[in-house]
Task: structure prediction
Amino acid sequence: MLTLTNVRKTFNRGTINEKVALQGVDLHLDRGDFVTVIGGNGAGKSTMLNMIAGVYPLDSGTITLDGHDISQLSEHARAAYLGRVFQDPMRGTAADMQIDENLALAARRGKSRTLRWGITKSERESYVEELRKLGLGLESRLSDKVGLLSGGQRQALTLLMATLQRPDLLLLDEHTAALDPKTAAKVLELTEQIVAEEGLTTLMVTHNMHDAIRLGNRLIMMADGKIIYDVRGEEKASLHRADLMRKFEEAAGEELANDRMLLG
Amino acid sequence: MTLAMLGAISQGILWGIMVLGVYITYKLLDIADLTCDGSLALGGCVCAVLVVEHGANPWLALLAGTVAGMLAGAVTGALHTVFDIPAILAGILTQISLWSINLRIMGKSNIPLLKHETIFSGLAEATGAPQTTVVVVLGALFAVATVGALYWFFGTEIGSALRATGNNEDMSRALGIDTRLTKMIALMLSNGLVGLAGALICQSQKYADIGMGTGAIIIGLAAIVIGEVLGRLTPGKLRSFSSRLVAAVVGSIVYFLIRAIVLQLGMDANDMKLLSATIVAVALAVPVVWERQQLRASYRKGGEA
Result:
């Protein structure tokens, strides 16, 4: 389904700010995999997702999706296959546009945009149904500007937008990290529900070890721009936080002190 | 006096079409596009040269002015989207180039159209109505048609993608919108309208001048700001997109009425640009200062609400 082969990325090469973000990432996802990604700050988790999404050009390596090489495709062209939710709730929606207009934009991801009307009446009706499933009362606020919504509501809406048009791959980049615990739990619950219903292949970056173990069928750990641990199925299900901490210790060595604090 | 006011209204309507162009870049794309000063003059110059030197049909000359404006917008668009030059600088580069280009097109710094038929003089002769009245009526028809066309366009899939681009580029790309393309379309559309306005202004004032676009962007911003204030003062707040477009044109008319009044009161015409800039600066500064003041006033040392 998704295959990353020797993907490398260095930012600001040749300057004092040079930062090796990914040093040879190999990863293969099967259809329907729900993979959680953990790792300390600067491990390369978000960079990996951004490379898949085409935000930055590759230094080397290839990315294929469903057998198509997408390594050289622009970000907007890859969007046809990808659903994305960002960490910052402000980034995933257009604040000055209405809820239904945002959904209509998302419904046209990957389709050519024409001079046909940007939103139709029947569409609007279907959005009411979709919004009702979120259970946030947004179904009665179709023509409200998204800027009026709370961070959690915006993030739930972004999640709906990302999956409205079924994506081949769903990329979740710490999408609950900026929310309060209660809202984060709600958005995570919606995530589980949508991913399960649609059987979506999903990559979810998280800082929360508990969520990383509990969700999905596979877990990968990154450090220093590499995947250092990859566990799935039964083995993953029986993981404990202590096991992950031990893995960190083995891999990260002296950097651990920092990471232990971050991951506490 | 009434004739002067009618003249101001007719000017306000024609410039209002330029204001609609500026609205696209400034309000929808969040770019202050300085190409506008150059493309307004370009539209006027192209129109004048075609009518005077090539005996072109004045309606065709309008179309040519529009297309020329679109090309100018495409140049700014290419500088900005292909070469990543910041939008303000890209606009300035095109604007400065257009000064030379416009002089080349005209071969001199101004062209009078006195003896030539324009769309306005043609209709004035046919109906026997005074020229100013004809400008107001025809100009209003153009403005209404433009507002209608923009209302339609920004409701379409491409138009919505364009609004999304101005709102949130990251999201737009994640939803498969080619933001370089949408910005290019917006800049071409905007400058096409500015070029059309230049051609209309040229035909109504019966000359084209190299300096006719100088300060156009400030007039555009001032008109938008005035329109917004008027919109806010109107009961119902005028939130819909079409009413905001209409407000921009009305803002332009009010701007030229204010201008006519202060000129009647004896203000030097050359001070008008200072007044325009002040209007824009004050309008942009007031909300910022107001908000800061509110924040400070809501501060309580003890922490009790």
